[in-house]
Amino acid sequence: MHLWQLDLVGGVPLADGREAKMVTGIDDHSPFVVTAAMVAVPSGRALCDAFTAAMRRYGVPFEVLSDIQAVHWPARPAAAGGGPVRAGLPQERHHPAAYQAAVADHDREIERWQKTLRRELLDHVAPFESLTAARPARA
């Protein structure tokens, strides 16, 4: 639980035609899944809520890697719950291309897990009736 990787997965079909997303997080060493939270909109608040719930359950990691920080995490610690900055975690903002180059070895872990998630669950589900109905299926 030293380093967590966080990312978003799209393509969770809902019956009303919308597409939900999943905030995913794994421990870099294990890779143990620390979060797989379903969200309708990947807002700063939704990401912070998923991240905070994971920390409450598993403790605070020393570091977090994510290419979604610059786009979705709030820029100010007080905004939308604060994200990793509010938790006092090291956080760097990178352009997505620079992030990919800087953490390519680590990034493979979460991308590999997401590929399995898509292949074994998301590619085979009919649209979920609602976001609430999709939440239990992620586990």
Please, could you describe this protein's structure?
Helix content is 37%, strand content 22%. The chain is of the alpha+beta class and 139 residues long. It has one domain: Nucleotidyltransferase, domain 5 (2-Layer Sandwich), CATH 3.30.420. A 4-stranded mixed beta sheet has the order 3-2-1-4, sandwiched between helices. A hairpin with a 5-residue loop joins strand 1 and strand 2 (19-27). The protein is globular, with a radius of gyration of 15 Å. The two termini are 20 Å apart. The model is unreliable at 74-83 (pLDDT under 50).
Helices and strands in order, then pairings?
Blueprint: E1 3-13, E2 19-27, E3 33-39, H1 44-58, E4 63-66, H2 69-72, H3 83-86, H4 96-102, H5 104-120, H6 131-134
Parallel strand pairs: 1-4
Antiparallel strand pairs: 1-2, 2-3
